[in-house]
Design a protein that fits this description.
Elements: E1 4-10, H1 17-30, E2 35-41, E3 52-55, E4 87-91, E5 96-97, H2 102-106, E6 114-117, E7 127-135, H3 140-148, H4 150-157, H5 160-167, E8 173-174, E9 180-182, H6 183-187, E10 207-209, H7 216-220, H8 234-239, H9 251-256, H10 263-268
Parallel strand pairs: 1-2, 1-4, 2-3, 6-8, 9-10
Antiparallel strand pairs: 4-7, 5-10, 6-7
Helix pairs in contact: 3-4, 4-5
Length: about 270
């Protein structure tokens, strides 16, 4: 029987071991065995023993400047990836798994690259790499091309997921629309309704991603980020628009960046 492989990448201090441990918990509840979770990381401390940890290889080139792209993830497009062979499913650490993952492995052909659609720019048919499936070593030219001119690639594409979308041989394929959802775009009510209605879980969703924030642990307690503690009431959040502290220096962004606690995240995003 084929072992389903899930991979994550953890580097730096943004995400602690609890993110990896929660990911394992969610995978174990939503993926039919046998499976394995592989974590490429620069710090294994605190990660549960069931997770197979491997050293995260260096990119071998300077990190691009003037870019918001998560270029360290390019290491997954090498001719070899530590601990992995065959087909693997990458999931960002700040994703919340709310439904079965089995179909993420059975859809299409083993050589296909599946990504989420970039819903912020839907007309451009760009991929979003919070959740993607790939054949390990099958598109090694992507990492080779980046290493040949990292700053040039970043200047042209801005985000690593845009580069991947254009570089995959034969093009990427998109997950079915209902499976992979974007928290801010698909779950969070528009302003000002979000002051009164909590974020909903779309019908048919399997994974909810959180690119650009807020993070799931912040949403669980009703805050946008860790810049300030959660405001006791929505009215205090509103009043802070004209004072301090604020979740953003710009008053308009502070006003819009409000979220009520969400029970379904607490239910699913746990070890």
């Amino acid at each position: 029987m084929t072992v389903k492989q899930v991979v994550c990448v953890k580097w730096g201090t943004m995400y602690g071991p609890e993110y990896v441990n929660r990911l394992y918990g969610m995978v174990s509840r939503q993926l039919t065995p046998p499976f394995r979770l592989v974590c490429l990381t620069d710090d294994r401390a605190g990660i549960r023993s069931e997770v197979e940890c491997f050293d995260l290889p260096e990119l071998g080139v300077p990190h691009p400047q003037r870019t918001m792209g998560k270029w360290r993830k390019q290491i997954l497009w090498g001719s070899t990836v530590p601990g992995l062979e065959g087909v693997a499913l990458f999931i960002d650490l700040d994703s919340v798994i709310v439904g079965s993952l089995d179909d993420y492995f059975s859809i299409g052909s083993p050589g296909d690259v599946y990504v989420a659609r970039n819903w912020a720019r839907p007309l451009e048919k760009l991929g979003q790499t919070s959740v993607f499936r790939f054949p390990v070593g099958g598109n090694a030219h992507i990492l080779d091309g980046f290493r040949a001119d990292p700053q040039g690639v970043a200047d042209k594409h801005q985000f690593e997921q845009h580069y991947v979308t254009h570089a995959v041989t034969g093009g990427v394929k998109f997950w079915p629309e209902k499976w992979t959802k974007h928290f801010r775009l698909h779950c969070l009510p528009p302003f000002p309704l979000r002051y009164f209605v909590p974020a909903r879980l779309p019908a048919g969703a399997r994974i909810v991603t959180f690119p650009g924030g807020p993070n799931p642990d912040d949403v669980m307690v009703g805050r946008w980020n860790k810049r300030v503690p959660p405001f006791p009431t929505r009215w205090q959040h509103l009043l802070a628009t004209f004072g301090e502290p604020r979740v953003d220096d710009k008053r308009r962004r502070h006003l819009q960046r409000f979220v009520l606690p969400v029970r379904w995240i607490e239910e699913h995003w746990r070890e």
